[in-house]
Records
---
Amino acid sequence: MRDKSAHIPLDHASVSPIEAAEKLRAFKEQMLKRRTVREFDTRPIDQALLDDIISVAGSAPSGANKQPWTFCLVQDPSLKSQIREAAEKEEFENYHGRMGERWMNDLKEFGTDHIKEFLKEAPCLIVVFKRIYEVDEAEGKQNNYYVNESVAIAVGMLLTAIHLAGLVAVTHTPSPMNFLAKVLERPENERAFLLIPVGYPKESTLVPDIKKKPLDEIRIAY
Ligand SMILES: Cc1cc2nc3c(=O)[nH]c(=O)nc-3n(C[C@H](O)[C@H](O)[C@H](O)COP(=O)(O)O)c2cc1C
């Protein structure tokens, strides 16, 4: 028999099919406008907005509810500049040999290079760390479960919350990203997962004219 002693009633609002269709249509319309933005206004973000965004991400499902993530909000100009300097060093190597010809070709339509002005302009850098293990006083290192899957789901929810808050972001991977743990003095059990500058878009910014795969290509009905 499963032990249900520590269970509580589900807090669930039922939605009629008509209401569901309406809500989902509005949500879809809004989500289809989400774009990666690489040029930011320097206007600061209200702290309460940032806290709500992190709370949404922190509500994500995770393997055995281990919640193997830490979200660092970097707004201090000196830390941001250390991060930019280290990121540009790695990106210089990436754009000058490490990425290879095919990757460089795939990146052409984005017009990106190793210069990362957005690490200075964006008022907040959210540095997401995955927690590989926890340290238990009695048992020592305890590995977390499905860490990548869990943190990726949380980041999906984070990006959704950022968009719903009227903010924009760039999912950035200046790999290898171990400099982030060093600069932010994170503990040994944490590894940098993504670097996400967040803010308001620079006026009249442009985004690459890319297309998403149509529904028929990504949905297979059995
Ligand atoms: C895991 C991951 C890593 C990414 N790394 C970078 C990056 O380092 N630099 C960058 O400018 N964009 C990066 N992107 C953004 C993608 O280029 C962008 O999501 C893609 O082109 C689709 O555009 P959209 O987000 O506007 O739909 C990354 C996105 C993901 C999901």
Note: The chain has one domain: 38-200.
---
Amino acid sequence: MLYNCHTHTKYSHDSAAEPAAMCDAAANAGLSGLLISDHCDCEYADHTDFFSMFQSCEKECAALKKRCKDLRVHFGIELGDPVYNADFAKKIVKACDFDAVLLSVHAVRLRGFDMPFSLIDFGDKNDAFILSYLIQYFNDVLYTVQTAPDFDVLCHLTVPLRYITLKYGKKADVHTYYPVIAQILGALAARGKALEINTSALAYENGFLMPDKEIAAMFLTLGGRYFTVGSDAHKPENVAFGLNEAAKMLKSLGVKDACCFDKRKIITYPL
Ligand SMILES: [Zn+2]
Ligand SMILES: [Zn+2]
């Protein structure tokens, strides 16, 4: 009975899913719980009324918590890129009664290419660009994990590779970045935070978990204790996608429990 700790609804700019439809799909797929974690990318805070948006989402989640008898429904936020607006990031996580705060880097601070990586065409970029882009990505994740004042889970570590290698077919070797990845995982473990195993890249040919088994093992070696699994679904039909594969990978490392969050408190459940 897995708990999906990362999903999106119509409260995200890139999803049209009704929260109720996500919950129904999760219950039908046999999940024990669902975290609704809509996007809040801090670089857009000046042009987007995230406060009203999350207040509406909170009301809808509160109604669903009551309505869904066989599914634990939790209300969260995917806080993206807090380094772009640290004051706003501090305020928004306090503005609602969130169950969980997910932390993400979507926009890398590389001059001229600081838009979200989903908007970058990596197809015409050379190896040197990809190397500097990924160095900056991992350094930004490290800085974010070290400095973000308030979060519970680090999301989809290695996610630009989903675009660079799977979508655009470019070469990149994640081992090149292991020294900084080890620092990220060490910082996360030291702060007692969870590492997400995100399944969304499994949808591609030669897809992989984000992060993969070797990096999850490194997290354990460095003292990490908590893992979440999340499909990052933006549609009801993807709500349970790949979660069993993530659970299988964790179990193969001897991990017995994954976790979810209730009012910002960690709850573990057996895998
Ligand atoms: Zn994300
Ligand atoms: Zn997401």
Note: The CA atoms of residues 145 and 188 lie 7 Å apart.
---
Amino acid sequence: MSKLALLILSLPLSCGAADFLRDPLVSQEIAKLGPEDPNVPRGPLHRAGQPCGACHNPEGIATSFTVAGTVYRDPKAKVPVADVVVLLIDAEGTKFTANTNCVGNFYVKPNEFSMRPPMWTSVQMGDVPFKMESPFHREVSCAVCHFDPDGPDTAGHLFVADDPTTFASIPLRPCGPADGVKR
Ligand code: HEC
Ligand code: HEC
């Protein structure tokens, strides 16, 4: 067979192969996140800081989420903060708030809030909200854009305080019975 014939044959094939390729790519993405921490059961406290939506999406391997993420105390240290208010406002102006748990994770299920993009968001602990100026669209995970290390491809992890003189005043709540964790 000539090279040209091979090329022509491979064109429609490569387009049709996109769906087929998606699964291996998704499995690779999931594999890159590594195994579960054996000390943390699958559930609200697992995989803090990871892009939850890699697994928690309508075609994914776990319960679908509308959005999910992890919030830390400050831009540098990854100190998890509980009871942060994550405000979401969709294209119709509908508001929804989610609260972080003791590892800083929050997640919203479609039966609680199925947003109409674009979405605006802020995170707040205390008086001053940190607002994201631009909206986001269909991303489930805040962490697809907010990850470490800080650099040109990322907005850095989510945080609730950027003035070091206030860090000590941010209350930290260790995981305990309220989070389903036995001590
Ligand atoms: C590598 C894949 C993967 C990632 C990443 C992941 N999870 Fe999960 N998660 C699972 C699996 C698998 C289960 C168990 C099956 C299920 O409950 O859907 C689960 C279960 C859960 C549950 C219990 C489900 C329910 O219906 O109550 C919650 C809550 C949860 N994960 C939150 C998160 C959060 C928050 C993140 C990100 C910080 C995250 N997960 C990241 C795979 C993942
Ligand atoms: C598509 C990429 C993207 C997604 C998804 C995304 N962000 Fe952002 N975020 C950015 C960028 C870029 C900035 C900096 C510019 C700006 O504020 O628009 C930012 C800034 C922010 C800020 C302001 C931080 C500061 O320094 O004041 C907050 C708060 C924030 N995002 C929260 C969130 C939350 C919560 C989610 C998930 C519900 C999320 N973001 C999802 C890209 C994203």
Note: The first helix runs from residue 3 to 32.
---
Amino acid sequence: MLLELTGRGLYCPAGDFYIDPWQPVRRAIVTHAHGDHARRGSERYLAAAQGAGVIRHRLGADTHLETIPYGESRLINGVRVSLHPAGHILGSAQVRVEQDGEVWVVSGDYKREPDPTCTPFEVVPCHTFITEATFGLPIYRWPPQEEVFAEVNAWWRQNQTEGRASVLFAYALGKAQRLLMGIDATIGPIYVHGAVHNLNEIYRASGVRLPDARYVGEASPKEDWSRALIVAPPSAQSSPWLRRFGRSSTAFASGWMRVRGQRRRRSVDRGFVLSDHVDWPGIIDTVSATGAQRVLATHGYTPPLVRWLAEQGLEAYALETPYQGEADEQGE
Ligand SMILES: [Zn+2]
Ligand SMILES: [Zn+2]
């Protein structure tokens, strides 16, 4: 096998490297900067050039990090390795591994919708495709993102007319920036939590032209929050940090909002269905587009996906990893 699952993570024996290992290793290839993929402690890392800023932010400035542009390949102990856009967050990559004409692709987290904060997903033909399955159930179908952004805008405007601040919870890395790019920034002032602010700075330095969004910590004590949109990570939801905004409406933007009851479970007033992961039809389309005959599913709802793929005549298995799905990405 070109790649196999070990106690430290997905391993390439011929090339002697790991992909997104969860234990320290000598050589790690990292698909993207979320905490369940980029973990500290390895000797050296390889990642896509566009993600250098966010990956250093995650792993620490003293990390031994080498980057390559999308599409450029490296020979590692005779195994050809290249990184290709995954469309998930800034710098996210699929890893293509080739030896003796056999090609494997590890998707990492990915999505198929356009997102102005990162390079669009590229279909990479392969024999074996390792796909994420965070939302690998037929109920997960994303509404068109234009509709979701219109709902956010309408909610913000409604809150303004009712004199309430609009507090929107979203993962600080990726989702927050995608929201800032997607909403109508002319509606009112935009503020962000410190965790979002730090990442915004890195996105800007990496060339993403985010709209103006001020750090909450720099606001005047007399700020009228009732006109503002405030973007914060989910971890800020139950903190005293929220009190300064006075009367507010809260919302959460996540793929999980597709399921009835999730909004109440998260105790927010509104749920917006917006995910940086591929939905069920997206997984099916992508598997078919790669031409892969063997598919390994990881992260999330693997059994239903594996069963469906096997029924289509593909060789399909689940790859069980200790980290399952988007909930792990809250660890900012
Ligand atoms: Zn991710
Ligand atoms: Zn993930």
Note: The helical segments are 52-59, 145-161, 175-182, 194-205, 262-265, 280-290, 302-311.
